[in-house]
Each structure stands twice: as C-alpha cells, then as structure tokens.
Write a structure and sequence with these properties.
With 266 residues, the chain is mainly alpha-helical. The chain has 3 domains: 1-140, no CATH class; 143-229, Orthogonal Bundle (Helix Hairpins); 231-266, no CATH class. The chain is 66% helix and 2% strand. It is flat, with a radius of gyration of 22 Å.
C-alpha cells in the first residue's frame, strides 16, 4: 500500500512543479514577468558568451564556462518542456532543435569545435520566445515586433557567417584580430561594398561570398519592408488564426471575424 502512496506523491509533486513552471514561463502576473525578464537577461548573457567564444576559447577558464552554460541551457530546455501543455509539439519546433544542437556542441566542445559558430542561432531562438514579446508588449512596443524580428534575423545571419568565415578561413589569425577581420569581410560582403582588401581564397571562398551576398541582400530588403511598409500588429484571429492585422482593424480580412485588438496603452 505504501508504494502507490509514494507514486501518487511523486505525481502530485510533478503536477505542482509543472503548474508552477507554466505560470512562470507563460503567465502575465508581476512575478511571472520578473522571472521572464531574468530568463531573457540570462539568454542574452549566454549569447554574448557564444559571440566571444572565438576570442576566449584558448583561455584556461573556457571549459568551465562552457559546461556552466551547458547546464543552464539544459535546465531551461527541461523547464520549458515541463511547462508546455504539449511536449511532443514543442519538441517538433525548429527552436527546440536549435537548442538541442547548441547543447550538444556545449557538451562536446572539442569534437564539435568547427560547428561552434552555429550556437549564435540561440539569438534566433530567443527572438521566437513568446515571453520576450509579451514583455515588450507590456511596454507598448508591440508595433515594433516585425521590425525587431527583421533586425534579429539580420544580426543572427551576420554573426553566423562571421563565425563560419573565422572558423574555416581565419583560424591562423586566432583571437580578436582574426574575428574582427571575419566580421569586416562579412559586413563588406553583405552590403556589397566590396573593398577587396580582405578576400577569401579559392572556390570555397568565392562560393561563401556569393551565398553571403544573396542572403544578406534579401535580409536587408526584409528589414526595409518591416520598417517602411504600413504598420501592422500581431494579433491571432480566434477563428482562422491569421496573425498580422492593421492596428485599427475591426474585422479579420481573411475570414471576417470580429477582432478585439487592444490599444498600445492597454
């Protein structure tokens, strides 16, 4: 008779834990927003560590920092799974795949050293966080959501390409100078400035430059569209799910359902 009691106690404790995490990750109470803000700050610190990795990876404390970040990422992944109403659906989302890959590179820093630059994708994953946008909406910044997405997409691309170029073409210039050279080449290529003082050797270098220019120009166009086209807000239609509407829309333009979009000050 005692075993079922213990099992029931464990189930009850797990249920309470999931309920608490759900309130913290998805709630709108002051305590939930404080927790979400701290989580965002920690995420930004982790991203800063990823950006600085090429410069500090030779330092004695790098492995200690690497495994500490791995523990944080793992804890966040487990907590988000427990807070989810549908774990399987969450695991199928691209942001979860990105986090799983990042965790793998953190746990195997030597074996996957050449793929470490992809950790910057954590910035893209953060930009898809509902908590981030809920916090910004509380500050009346909802109308900047699409532009912010475009800026983060461009920044993520620049940092990923910089990491790739540094890893495969500037490794002999290890350290800050080599990383700055890789960043300089990336920005000059994306903006099609093409000074030509830094070029990548061989066919692989030319193909890298071509891909960087094509995708970079596309992201710049996307950013310009987000900044200058008529402003729309993110508000899912309860009936058809269409997410983008004019700020003063009364009916969904796709299905005609009556909308109740809150004002910026609400």
């Amino acid at each position: 008779m005692k075993a079922p009691d213990r099992d029931g106690a464990r189930d009850s404790a797990l249920t309470r834990l999931r309920g608490t995490l759900r309130k913290l990750y998805h709630g709108r109470t002051p305590a939930a927003f404080r927790f979400q803000l701290v989580a965002i700050i920690i995420d930004l610190a982790i991203i800063a560590f990823f950006i600085a990795t090429p410069v500090i990876q030779e330092s004695p404390s790098f492995l200690w920092l690497d495994y500490s970040v791995a523990a944080l990422v793992a804890a966040d992944m487990v907590a988000r799974l427990l807070a989810s109403n549908d774990m399987l659906r969450l695991m199928k989302q691209p942001a979860s795949w990105v986090d799983a890959f990042i965790l793998l590179t953190l746990l195997m820093p030597s074996a996957l050293a050449n793929l470490g630059f992809l950790r910057i994708l954590r910035l893209w994953s953060l930009s898809r966080s509902g908590a981030l946008w809920r916090y910004l909406e509380m500050r009346g910044l909802r109308r900047w959501r699409e532009a912010s997405h475009a800026v983060i997409n461009l920044l993520t691309f620049l940092l990923v390409i910089t990491g790739f170029v540094y890893t495969f073409f500037f490794r002999t210039g290890a350290g800050l100078e080599g990383y700055v050279d890789a960043l300089y080449f990336t920005v000059a290529t994306v903006t099609t400035t093409g000074f030509g003082d830094i070029v990548l050797p061989g066919i692989a270098g030319k193909l890298t430059a071509i891909v960087t220019m094509i995708i970079g120009i596309s992201l710049f166009v996307r950013l310009a569209q987000a900044l200058f086209r008529p402003n729309k807000v993110f508000f899912p239609c309860p009936q058809c799910g269409l997410q983008r509407h004019e700020a003063d829309a009364v009916h969904c333009k796709a299905c005609g359902h009556i909308l109740n979009i809150p004002d910026e000050g609400d």
